[in-house]
């Protein structure tokens, strides 16, 4: 993902946690925060040390980034999304991660209407 399409600063994460709307399933929690005057959506990732070692955490983040990239044409622009991976995400392969994220996004009505 390009640098400008990522949530990086702690302040931005905290704002999403406090003011954003959250929705979740067993593997992921997603916070959505509308941003005025923002053309694209931005993604922030958080994977706790409880989930696994550094190799596993980085693998989960790569899977999430790729899944979001593949779903990007369906996601509503103009929002910040912070995705938090829970412990069960460590045992999933890419296709399961993508399926689970799709489910969470549908629950949160993140996808564009057709």
UniProtKB/TrEMBL annotation:
<protein>
    <recommendedName>
        <fullName>Ribonuclease P protein component</fullName>
        <ecNumber>3.1.26.5</ecNumber>
    </recommendedName>
</protein>
<keyword id="KW-0255">Endonuclease</keyword>
<comment type="similarity">
    <text>Belongs to the RnpA family.</text>
</comment>
<keyword id="KW-0378">Hydrolase</keyword>
<comment type="function">
    <text>RNaseP catalyzes the removal of the 5'-leader sequence from pre-tRNA to produce the mature 5'-terminus. It can also cleave other RNA substrates such as 4.5S RNA. The protein component plays an auxiliary but essential role in vivo by binding to the 5'-leader sequence and broadening the substrate specificity of the ribozyme.</text>
</comment>
<dbReference type="InterPro" id="IPR014721">
    <property type="entry name" value="Ribsml_uS5_D2-typ_fold_subgr"/>
</dbReference>
<dbReference type="InterPro" id="IPR000100">
    <property type="entry name" value="RNase_P"/>
</dbReference>
<keyword id="KW-0694">RNA-binding</keyword>
<dbReference type="Pfam" id="PF00825">
    <property type="entry name" value="Ribonuclease_P"/>
</dbReference>
<comment type="subunit">
    <text>Consists of a catalytic RNA component (M1 or rnpB) and a protein subunit.</text>
</comment>
<dbReference type="InterPro" id="IPR020568">
    <property type="entry name" value="Ribosomal_Su5_D2-typ_SF"/>
</dbReference>
<keyword id="KW-0540">Nuclease</keyword>
<dbReference type="InterPro" id="IPR020539">
    <property type="entry name" value="RNase_P_CS"/>
</dbReference>
<dbReference type="GO" id="GO:0004526">
    <property type="term" value="F:ribonuclease P activity"/>
</dbReference>
<keyword id="KW-0819">tRNA processing</keyword>
């Amino acid at each position: 993902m390009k640098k400008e399409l990522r949530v990086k600063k702690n302040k931005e994460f905290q704002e999403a946690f406090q003011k954003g709307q959250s929705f979740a399933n067993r593997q992921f929690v997603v916070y959505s925060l509308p941003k005025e005057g923002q053309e694209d959506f931005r993604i922030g990732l958080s994977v706790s040390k409880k989930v696994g070692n550094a190799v596993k955490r980085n693998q989960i983040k790569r899977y999430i980034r790729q899944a979001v990239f593949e779903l990007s044409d369906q996601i509503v622009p103009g929002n910040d999304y912070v995705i938090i991976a829970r412990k069960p995400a460590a045992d999933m392969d890419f296709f399961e991660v993508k399926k689970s994220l799709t489910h969470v996004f549908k629950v949160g009505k993140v996808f564009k209407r057709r």
